[in-house]
């Protein structure tokens, strides 16, 4: 009937489906009701998403016979707080939902992380459904079961692993995203190619314009990304090993985000990851691990799609190399003067490097610093 | 070397040991360090326990080379709150502990539930060590991985399953407990006999005075209780079936606690469970499921140890039978006029009864109401 693509996340008794296709918001009641018959639901969303899409979701749930209440929160990273967590938990309990009922996260990564955390702790774990409305959330945060909020001492330091029962990724709602946000999400799509799928990266180089335009190529890119992440997560659900590969580009990226004090007007997460991936490839070339041609290829693709790819692309300037290094060291455990990085031997050949000398990182930052 | 009794909780890769014996607080560093080498720890405790035993624990940890910080909270059920949870989480993060470091719960059930919850959500799950200092916590809340806090809408509605790596039950610290608190904990010890260990119940009838006095009989009673609970938990870690047997006496008991507005001066949890167990046996006899002689035997034993065993034993009077029923119905899902209760066919033969008519419960409450 529908043209949805289905990706299965193989986690034994916690296995679940990701459905990807246009119009899934309107069909949510049918898809959820088929898998979780007779439930009621609490929708957790933000003001922006509610304004654009909530009515369609309510109608879609009604059609499937699912009664629902709604908890609307302010949009933005500040919502990943203890106060918002308590608000969601209280709202779910006020709706008198039982363990077998569902919390539905309807929004981007912030809403998914917060609502998933709430679902994981109300009655020691309720059913949870992800309905990601940003490209970033569809290909990254909605897959893998990580949930959480921020602490004054760092991002995502408080949370649980709580797998959803179902992920519904409506590819049509992405048309309402600002282009800058879509692009930032695309950085994580490209990441999966760079980690271990060279053919997918080559396909993106040839087809990225169709992915941005919408239609089958977009669905295919999202499905490939979910499959890639699901493979890694199935191998390492609780992040004790291989899952660290998903951090490709994130060490440099987080340092840049921290350096602009998480000011989204200057740099959003996906943009930080884009620059971080380019730097990880360039640094790998400098360490004679990969060819400079591969670094150039990554830089060229990011540039082509309109993503930032070098430190000079961060508007407003950056602190000096020593300061950037201290942001990296803050993010990571520095053991005996060495850092853990995701480095690469070429396109689609990334690996976990556990003994990267701090001195090399500092020299690299100095060479590539725009200031 | 030591005379500790060891009980293993068989949960596959989450299996852990319970050590039971005198002096374990002073030996904590050695026992923890043997299993979790090189860690640091955050001790979570309350003001009463800190005053009596914290110095000995700090010394014990120091001796094992375990550096520790301490978070001290007010004693009492009100500490199972969102605000206290945030305080513990912030304290653990402020101590810069990593996932492989440990949160140590040093106190009764309130501290264990709260600290376990914090350990379950900091960095999506840190190592956790239970050091229960009340009899109730040693035989009940420290075994099984349930953690949580209370909501305005009910007790323990928010939490996670998070198994400890080790439980150290120091039987000597129980000597500092008020006798009323020790007795209340003893109700849960007797419960394990009544659930499915008739020989243990008979042993308690013969030996309860030695259990109260301390020494080997106390260690034996605690070890038997932990074994009994560990067996149930190993069969049903996430409470989807058999684990409900542990609620013997709790349906009536919770209703009585609610009826006195959780006023511990009138009725503490274990006392409610004691009356609840006697009522469950008497009600089972009334339903012709068990012999009235068994109900009389339970009542006689509770009376002998000084525990309350009938509704008339609650000081200050109780609301009428209809009101008590509404507290029961609030606690449970009432489906089609029927309630789920733990009933029994005799001593050590309890079972889950899913279709208990509300009308029978009401009639029983009226017959047994003191007012």
Automatic annotation (TrEMBL), chains A, B:
It catalyses: 7-phospho-2-dehydro-3-deoxy-D-arabino-heptonate = 3-dehydroquinate + phosphate. Pathway: Metabolic intermediate biosynthesis; chorismate biosynthesis; chorismate from D-erythrose 4-phosphate and phosphoenolpyruvate: step 2/7. It comes from the Bacteria. Residues 71-183 form the 3-dehydroquinate synthase N-terminal domain. The keyword Lyase applies. The keyword Transferase does not apply. It holds the Pfam family DHQ_synthase. Residues 185-334 form the 3-dehydroquinate synthase C-terminal domain. SUPFAM superfamilies: Dehydroquinate synthase-like. Its main location: cytoplasm. Catalyzes the conversion of 3-deoxy-D-arabino-heptulosonate 7-phosphate (DAHP) to dehydroquinate (DHQ). HAMAP family: DHQ_synthase. NCBIfam families: aroB. Belongs to the sugar phosphate cyclases superfamily. Dehydroquinate synthase family. This is 3-dehydroquinate synthase. It comes from Aquamicrobium terrae.
